[in-house]
Amino acid sequence: MTLLKQGTGSSLTGMVGPIVIAEWMGQTYMRSAPKRKVKNSWSPQQLLHRKRFKLVNTFCKQFRVFLIPQIWNDTAERMSGYALFLKTNMPAFAADGSLMDPKLIRLSTGKLPLVEELKADRSVPGSNTINVSWSKTSVLGGIRSKDELMVISAGNGKYSEITGTGIIRYALNGSFELPQPPASATHIYLFFGSKDRRDYSESVCIELGTNDTN
Q1: In this structure, which of 3, 137, 196, 197 has its CB flanked by the most CB atoms within 10 Å?
Q2: CA-to-CA distance for 23 and 17, rounded, in angstroms?
């Protein structure tokens, strides 16, 4: 980058051929214009990276309205809630953009503690009633005992909205109905939300037992 000398009060900015002239910190500089790659010049690795990012971005877009504004926007500090959600979940996707394991997805984040020995499964095969339980040693007192267990159900790449189960942290166990859609859930994401819905815990993914009654 080259510094240009000029008279007081003068202004010189713009692009001349392959040269960009710009002002920065009260000085005028000249540098070469960046060269844009054409699609045919991208390496196989670059093309794969672009494909992966596009697919992960598509995955994240479905949460822009009902989940990211509610949980992730308040948690993000140096980036948007959307960017934080995308960055957090990027490791769950393989190099080709396919989801490696639903259990690697994090749908919630926050400062609230989760619970120990959290278990969940269908009450009976084919039922949409889910029984949950967790360890008594992980229960906190005070206002934290009133935190409510929240659930998002997932199946075939579709996700339900955030749903309160009505089960509080202090209860240690309970039952709830799977939120729909999706009609055939294969996994659920469980996490706790404060009574005023201002704070949340990280989510944990649990694979459900078969939905086949046969």
Answers
A1: 197
A2: 18
SS3 content of the chain, % helix, strand, coil (to 5): 25, 30, 45
Structure tokens given for 112: 């609230």
Taking only the tens place, the pLDDT of each residue in 20-29 is 666 665 566 6
Together in a domain, 49 and 94:
yes
Do 76 and 178 reside in the same domain of the chain? Answer: no
What is the distance between the alpha carbons of residues 131 and 175, in angstroms, rounded to a whole number?
4
CATH code at 165? 2.60.40.3580
Residue 90 domain-assigned (yes or no): yes
Tokens encoding 34 = 């960046």
Residue 23 and residue 68 in one domain: no
Q: State the CB neighbour count (10 A cutoff) for residue 89.
A: 18
Asked if 20 and 30 touch (Cβ cutoff 8 Å), the reply is: yes
Per-residue pLDDT reduced to its tens digit, 86-108: 999 999 999 999 999 999 999 99
CA-CA distance, 38 to 102, in Å (whole number)? Answer: 35
Average pLDDT over all residues of the chain: 86
This prediction's pTM: 0.77
Which residues in 88-209 belong to E strands, given as ranges?
119-122, 129-133, 148-155, 158-159, 163-168, 173-177, 187-193, 204-207
Quote the domain boundaries for residue 20. 2-32
Of 100, 126, 141, which residue sits at a domain end? Answer: 100
Task: Single out the residue in 100, 116, 146 at which a domain terminates.
Answer: 100
